[in-house]
Amino acid sequence: EFPEDQRFLREETQYMLGPDLLVTPVLEPGVKSRVVRFPAGIWHHLTQRVAYEGPSEQAVPMDLLDIPLFLREGAAIPVHLDEGAELGHWRAEMAFRTLVIDAERSPIRNLDLSFYPDTQSRTVSVGFDVLPTWTSRVEAGWAIDEPGARPEAGRLVQTGRRITGTWQAAADRDMDGKQQILTLSSLSGSHRVPLVRAVVSWGSPVELLPPDFRDLMLRDAPFEVTTTLVNHEPVEKKVQVSAAATAGVKVSPAQQVITLAGAQTQTIQWTVTRDPSALIGDERIRWVVKGGEGEYTRLVCTLPTPATWVITGPFPEKTGAIAHRTPYAPEWEYGPEVAFQFPDQSLTAWDPLPREQLAEQGVIDFGAWYGPTTQHASAYALTRIRSDGNRMAELRFGSDDSIKVWLNGELIHELITNRASRFDDDIVLATLSNGVNTLLVKVSQNEGDWDMAFHVTAPGGGQAEGFSDGFDEIGAYVPGREPERTTSYRIQPLPWQICGPIQDLPIENLGWKMTWDRMANDSAWPPTSIPGHWMPIGREHLADNLLDFEYLFGEKVTDATVYAITTLTVRKPTKVELRSGSDDGLTLWLNGLKVLDANTPRGFQPDDDITRVSLPPGKNRLVARITQRQGDWKFQLNALDQSVWPARPITE
Question: Cα(282)–Cα(268) distance, rounded to whole angstroms?
């Protein structure tokens, strides 16, 4: 279409769909308008009552709910809609009808609106034509797009077919970054009809764009960062850009004078030098842009100080979700002397992450370390932070994908997700104890990129104080070292035996008790006061002490109970944490004493129940009763020895 219009020879952002439909996709996220090149004719917006005369090039409103489609005036378009409706639901039995695009469809013509008003002039202007046959009055309304904002009436002046108006921001109102909604309506008597809705975005006429966040990680040697200066106005601007930083860094030059042509964009280079004695935490650079009209804008960027990390992995599974919920040995083995052994006898250990690599990449890039083809796996990162006292801090993370965080052995954060990593996606308020604190992070991968971002701030995002690198033993984590010992990469299962299924369930009226519960106090082991026999479960069916009864008994078992027994052996009085999960109900007895009673129907979640007990020396008898209504039927229990740090599983 329109081969004589030279403007469309290289046009790639809009296209014709037949002779009468102009499609103008929105290709940038968050924008509220776009420039459209209209060919000859009059083109009506599909969802708003505004039309544009071509050939022309005009900025048009593009709201999130708009369909980016324009219809040529005079066109007869076959549609499949409810009779009398502009839009409707598709119905296979409905016949086509013809939609005629006539002039009366859009009384507003050639809307001219300053979609990006600047904070210096503090004025929004609007202008448009109306059809000569249009007799209704047009009203304008303005509203700041924020909670509680009241709409304000706009004053319009009509001269012939042309209507114009302005809105002036109050001198004491900060408009930078605000969005404002313009509505145009027709009023005939008491009848008001919406015509146009458009959004304008306030900003400085000169804008300073930040560097990529991955380029802001502090490094030991001087490095370059790049800001981008944008002139949004068509006239030349001469500006002064100054930089100031917190005590731990120096920025040079401290000031640059730039002349920007109209609508010009220019990059600016800055050299950042870090004070090597700076503590762990953020540094900040503040840029201020000034011109003849005063201050245009300012920009503050955070520069995280990289911690000293060791990493280990990958630990693959069928899916990233399975890898995330599976506890692997790095959760309790932190030392440089140990290597983790896989079934094929291969080994992995804790490896130091070069600070230069972390600073260069801005994130811990597991994909770069273990290979971009590694999918559906977990990896761990470990660091130590020294605090000069008990201090509150915000530990700020980004992860691709799921993440678990332990501080000094305590789980403080977990999120199952599928996302790209960004700084500050997760903000965890925590207390760092006086001395050295150990931070362990597990990041589980689905597909694609695999990395983690981290930095420390004071509560509320301010600059952290009192923290320094606490990884004093990092020199022992020599790459390629020979391990002093090896251990399995995952939990070694306990010696479980089961009896069942029994076609019976405990009921509330009887206190959730069953006849066979008495075997928890049986003198014999395995207990004999229960019908049926005890079946040992092979280790091949006991990954991470997870018993899948649906797999063992079949999928059709409903309204049934199974008992499971094992022993926990310790050599001294030991505080233990029993971490269990079940689908459905679960009751636990330890040495004949009931320690957990969870009889509500539920789906399986690892570590749903945390039961803290004390074990005497020797073999301790553990009995579990797991009930099933219908659907999945699973049970998992891991016993963690709390007398050592980090806590580690009991395996006998």
Answer: 23
